[in-house]
Amino acid sequence: MNEKLIKCKLIDYLLKKYPNSIVGAEVPFLAGRRWVDVLLINRKRELIAFEVKSEFDTLRRLESQLKDYLRTFDRVYIIFSTKHKNHNVISRLPKNVGYAFIDNNEKLSFVKAAIKNKKLFKLNLSYFLWKKDMLIFRRNQSESAIKLRARLMKQKSVSDIHEMAIKALLERYLERFNIFINEKSQHTHQEDLEYLTKIYKIDL
């Protein structure tokens, strides 16, 4: 089963389990150095990341990916193809990472629930904010996003920046998500993923 098909099955599962939540696909973080396969913003205003590892993927980079995920998102899940079921990396997953398997019959089985991360990094969360999202911290017209971000991190708490990140992400993805909901049929198809994927130049 390819990555896009797994994403479709996962999204259908999330929409059923977490009504009134928002979903995005291929969402950039860390200034575009990383991309989360599926992002869920739930009613508790948590950022929940899902990394998909299909049967065509290797797990070589997973441990380094998880370091960034755990500094950025409230909860982190890995969705593995059953091809990886006996891989030794699974036994080395951080204790707060949740995971599930999806088989060739498209059955998604969650094995472990993710534990909420309590040590998110201000810088990681701040990269969800574009320059326009930080103008409240501007002292003059010519200030760069770098200076604005530095001032933001000095003046605001992790929880404040987290809330600003949620607001910015909702502004970018809510309209597209609503179009996706209105256009999709009973099940999500691979072409529907385009509605959830926002293509843009990251304005830092």
What does this protein structure show overall?
- The chain has 204 residues and is α/β, with parallel strands linked by helices.
- The chain is built from 6 helices and 6 strands, in the order αβββαβββαααα.
- Strands 1-2-3-4-5-6 form a 6-stranded mixed beta sheet, sandwiched between helices.
Topology:
Blueprint lengths: L2 H15 L4 E8 L4 E8 L5 E7 L8 H9 L4 E7 L15 E6 L5 E5 L9 H5 L18 H11 L2 H26 L9 H4 L8
Low-confidence stretches: none
The SSE string, one letter per element, is HEEEHEEEHHHH
Largest sheet: 6 strands, mixed
| Helical/strand content category | alpha/beta
- Helix amount: 25-40%
Query: Shape, please?
Result: globular
Number of helical segments with 4 or more residues: 6
Average of pLDDT: 93
Q: Which range does the strand content fall in?
A: 15-25%
Q: How do the strands of the widest beta sheet line up side by side?
A: 1-2-3-4-5-6
List keywords for this structure.
20% strand; alpha/beta; 6-stranded mixed β-sheet; 204 residues; 6 helices; 34% helix; 6 strands
What is shown here, in short?
The chain has 204 residues and is of the alpha/beta class.
